[in-house]
Amino acid sequence: NLPWLSDPKLTFYAAIITNIWLGFPFMMMITLGGLQSIPAELYEAADIDGAGAWNKFKDITLPLLKPTLTPAIILGTIWTFNMLNIIIILAGGYGNKETQILVTDVYRLAFNFYRYGFAAAYSVLIFLFLLVFSVIYVKKSNIFKEEIR
User: What CATH number does the domain containing 121 carry?
Assistant: First the structure.
């Protein structure tokens, strides 16, 4: 047996596992919707051309899922960054240093130490970090270049 909630490092891992478990249905529904939007004729044409399963996945499925999965991955990352409720529930409050994330620090600053201005500034920095991540991820995924072709 592992002491998931009594060992601080394991509590953090338990929070990560819980967050993945909570986000999995959302990602699967988005992926299912994206898969259902891919025309079957593309796979039939690939079969006629003699493409294998890997080539169909690499050349048809993955490029056509990219516009669907990009916003879902960005949303999942943002939700992971803001998993305050999971940390509070699993760690029994704010926990200790091993279970802290940026959002729990903001919450403690605002509502335990009453440093609202500092917490607001910290929140803006977290927002800017997530915005920069999102912009870089969208640019690296090239979803807009593929739609123009």
Answer: 1.10.3720.10
Structural domains counted in the chain: 1
pLDDT in tens, 92-117: 776 677 888 889 999 999 998 999 99
Count CB atoms within 10 A of the CB of residue 90.
Answer: 19
- Give 97-105 contacts, CB < 8 A, sequence gap 24+: 97/8, 98/8, 98/9, 98/11, 98/12, 99/8, 99/11, 99/12, 99/15, 102/126
Q: Structure tokens of 78? A: 């943002």
Q: How many CB atoms lie within 10 A of CB 44?
A: 10
pTM above 0.90, yes or no: no
Question: Mean per-residue pLDDT for 47-55?
Answer: 95
